[in-house]
Design goal:
7-stranded parallel beta sheet; Rossmann fold; globular; alpha/beta
């Protein structure tokens, strides 16, 4: 046991009176101890005679970025296997969607930074290289990798102002952690300078851009969009469809109030709300009903009739065009992009209301890639690098409050040419900024052992 293990154990013990009494905290802690101590791993896919890349992606956004990274690596090195580690529930669920059928991917929960947990994972799965997405540095993990001569790369690197201040206060620790990195790829010059200030060696830092642009597909999902529109009774050719994606608490109420106002002048306007977190689906459904609308839940559109196995739903809401008295609730996973493809205009959530620094902004790149006119609020710090590009190109509308949102919605609804121009500028930004993933792939390949004949 080292000093970090002692500190972690002491902190866990001191916090025990709180997390033992409060059931949500107790469930979270006990689940972490059960799933993230290196014991609950399915290692059946790992073939130890093949080289492996460990890729750590904390949450949903980072997991999405691994898709193109793995696809490009596999094109260069078909012999590779991959160990994907993630921390959050949403990240793990998304990773299962992406990789459950891929025999070369082993998916595990990222181990807690206790030496015993790290040792179990590294000794059992034996990766040749560790790739960390954005900024996820833990001292025991870094130390154990270095002891095993496992090269550590940080790609798509970024740091929030709050994290930067925190790391500055702990420079006695952070300098050694950044010093353990073989190379560090920053999203832009600002992040590169901050990493160097925290202890990264200047000759190991390079600027490669953000992989978030690479994860956005420029080609719309035509077949899926047609099926979704048919199921929900939507007709994009005759209706203006307003999609609000990845919304958070406080935003849905604002949007529903504005929808009520807008319907007076835009009778063909239809609204789809897609909350960020699945655990809020029921809450948002109730909110929709409180505002006097029927809630058409996407998950129930194709549900079988009760007691009739396999039969399609005959609910009239799924067979008739969506009415002005209905609001769609997107309560399925993996369909947000398809909803965006149907939209005449998009509002990206977790940006209108301040939900705390860790939730400042959802992904506006995805609808931009589909050439949709996009509105965001003032809280977009999680995508600050991307917003700089969109802002410079005049490719996105930013609003500061409810009244500005209302005015900009009316402006877009009144001007079809503006919607087209704004969407095209946004798609051009995405197209021009793609390429970071390829740069990261080249770097990873440099540190891998050569392929066997």
């Amino acid at each position: 046991m080292n000093g970090f293990d002692l500190a972690y154990g002491t902190g866990l013990a001191l916090a025990a009176p709180f997390w033992l009494i409060h059931s949500p905290a107790r469930r979270k802690v006990l689940q972490a101890l059960r799933l993230r101590m290196g014991r609950a791993m399915d290692t059946s896919r790992r073939q130890l005679n093949r080289p492996a890349v460990l890729i750590h992606a904390v949450s949903l956004g980072e997991i999405n970025a691994t898709r193109s990274l793995i696809q490009q690596l596999a094109q260069h090195r078909p012999d590779l296997q991959y160990i994907i580690t993630t921390t959050t529930v949403t990240g793990y669920d998304r990773a299962r969607q992406l990789y459950s059928s891929n025999p070369d991917v082993t998916l595990i929960r990222y181990p807690l930074d206790f030496s015993v947990a790290i040792n179990r994972v590294l000794d059992t799965l034996r990766p040749d290289i560790a790739v960390l997405l954005e900024l996820e540095l833990w001292p025991n993990f870094l130390r154990q990798c270095r002891q095993r001569n496992i090269e550590i790369l940080l790609v798509n690197g970024r740091i929030t102002p709050r994290s930067f201040r925190g790391y500055q206060r702990l420079q006695f620790l952070t300098r050694s952690m950044f010093g353990a990195l073989s190379e560090l790829c920053a999203q832009d010059q600002r992040f590169a300078e901050q990493f160097i200030a925290l202890g990264a060696a200047p000759d190991r830092v390079r600027i490669t851009g953000t992989m978030k642009f690479d994860t956005a597909a420029l080609v719309p999902p035509t077949d899926a969009a047609r099926q979704l529109a048919q199921a929900l009774g939507l007709d994009p050719a005759k209706q203006l469809i307003w999609v609000c994606g990845s919304t958070g608490p406080g935003e849905e109420a604002m949007i529903l109030e504005l929808y009520r106002q807008l319907q007076k002048n835009y009778p063909t306007l239809r609204l789809a709300l897609i909350p960020r977190h699945p655990e809020r689906f029921d809450e948002v459904a109730q909110l929709i009903q409180q505002y006097g609308y029927a809630c058409l839940r996407r998950s129930q559109v194709d549900a079988p009739q009760p007691g009739v196995a396999g039969s399609p739903s005959t609910d009239s809401a799924t067979r008739q065009p969506l009415t002005t008295q209905s609001v769609i609730l997107g309560d399925t996973m993996g369909e947000l992009r398809t909803f965006y493809s149907l939209a005449a205009l998009v509002v990206v959530g977790r940006s209108l209301v301040d939900l705390g620094q860790r939730q400042h902004g959802s992904d506006m790149i995805e609808p931009a890639a589909l050439a949709k006119p996009v509105i965001v609020g003032p809280h977009t710090q999680n995508f600050a690098d991307a917003m700089l590009k969109f802002r410079a190109a005049g490719a996105m509308i930013e609003v500061n409050n409810r009244d500005e949102l209302y005015q900009q919605l009316r402006r877009l609804l009144d001007d079809a040419d503006l919607r087209i121009q704004l969407g095209q500028r946004a798609a051009d930004v995405v197209r021009n900024e793609q390429g970071a993933t390829a740069a990261h792939v080249d770097l990873i390949l440099k540190y891998l052992p050569p392929a066997r004949d």
